[in-house]
Amino acid sequence: MTEQPILALEGLRTEFATGQGAPVVAVNDLSLTLKRGETLCIVGESGCGKSLTALSILRLLPRPYGRIGGGRVLLEGRDLAQATDAEMRQIRGRAISMIFQEPMTSLNPVLTIGRQIAETVMVHEGLDWTACMGRALEMLRQVRIPEPERRLHEYPHQLSGGMRQRVMIAMALACRPRVLLADEPTTALDVTIQAQILDLVRDLQAETGAAVILITHDLGVVAEMADRVLVMYAGHKVEEGSVEEIFDAPAHPYTQGLMQAMPHLGSGEHRSRLNEIAGVVPALNARPPGCSFAPRCGLATDRCRQEMPPLTGLGGTHMAACWAAGGSQA
Amino acid sequence: MGSYIARRILATLPVLGVVAVIVFLLLRLSPGDPAAIIAGDHATADDIAQIRRELGLDRPLLEQFILWLGQLLSGDFGNSIYLDRPVLGLIAERVEPTLALSLTTMAFAILLAIPAGVVAAWRAGSWVDQAFMALSVLAFSVPVFLIGYGLVMGLSLGLDILPVQGFVSLWDDPLGFAAHLVLPTVALGLVYTALLARITRATMLETLNEDFIRTARAKGLAEPRVLILHALKNASVPIVTTIGTGIALLIGGVVVTESVFAIPGIGRLTIDAVLQRDYPVIQGVILVIAGIYVFVNLAIDLTYSLLDPRIRY
Where is the ABC transporter domain (chain A) (predicted)? Predict the structure, then answer.
């Protein structure tokens, strides 16, 4: 615990200008720490602010409306929220890399994959083009793409989805980043390919020592990959803990709901309907005054609807933001 | 790729054939007897019949067409009725000014419009964007001759910086050549600049929203590289299509511009030929322009596969 985290968010607030009145807040007062070599999974439904958290770290929020409205993004103690654009360009792709959900559309269709990997190396390490292409080839081997010499000169449309995600990973890791942000890297892929990609991420993480923030809504992926888990709901952190703490004793009703919505093999009730969490994440501009989850929560009381519950420690590293958690619920 | 080019060249033949038929019928079906026109006001019926025989106008239509086509293919486009000289020679004499004006106009439009469109899309909604787009509406709405006369009034007659009109060959006087081309180029080029800038902005705006642009930025690339290599290359197919259409539209604009600035090019030749009912010249000009048009389209189609690797034939 004394080791300085490689990446830390302190009270991150991401907001969008609306043209009239106050900006809407998409990520609210989010803090997290990420240690060297660690894997943190951020879990939540669509629209809860997971991807925007990652984009905030890289300062790639959609322009011109998105912006960091408060808090700090500390990379080894240095605040990226205050960095200049030129400094951010040095960091993107070199200290912090990102892979995206859609390998189909995230690669440039008119450039060869070799070129797309090599240009990252060229921009950050200033090597000559031959050396950069050499690195690209080496990276394609490392992500286990068959016939890398041939693939180097191919275009994205000539590759399958899983292959393209491998290329994205090769590109992200080409400059040996210390932090890898993976935004639903397997969601768009076949189940069999998903496992391969996750294995690959884990192997490369072990080889390079990179810390990983893995954004997902798939608790199966979390169980497989995470050291620690952070559950987000409507822009807030609602629960955080080690993977054991979260899976053994989910404290927040939202986390419990996510667990119950997962299919279980051999539980005797396969073929029955999965439990779903009724309702949807409230819109950014229509958040209730109290706990954001209260409208969908079976345990909600008047207090929940009036007052936002603070994050409270539940022993160990486990913490949750729920009035019901801590004593009555475990 | 080789076989594709061959197929595309073959595919232009029917188009050129249809053009040939229409051009041929233009003379035969138009009101007024060409033989009577050639013969002049004081000709007798015998004179006219004589001329008609010489031109082959008394033979069946199909026979005339085959004869005419045979002449075309051997490079004989007939003689001008008024000047009594080969049409192809007349056109060749007039090619330089028209070609020069067309090329400078396209170059002017491309060099101005693409950077403007890219910057406008990059900073969409900003004052720069709004200013560029307002200017493009203006340039688009004002007719060529108005811009032309306005420029002549201001820069030539008013400030006396540039020649009013006329044309000087590049080989005789390169400086004079350039000076004479400035005003016609601007007058004719503004419309295409406006059109091209708007298309560039629209396609760039779409491309800049693509996921791979976010990827490029996430790699730490600088904006110029993101805009030019990653975005513009993806947006290039519609832009090149517009440039191609622009070349076709240019032909109409050239006729007007050459009149305004008294440039002895193909446009002037066409107007004179129409006014004098010089049918062989009209036919020759139409055939040459149609040929250029088909060639430009072919070139553009072939360019697509260079710009976008997903386009394969």
Answer: 12-259
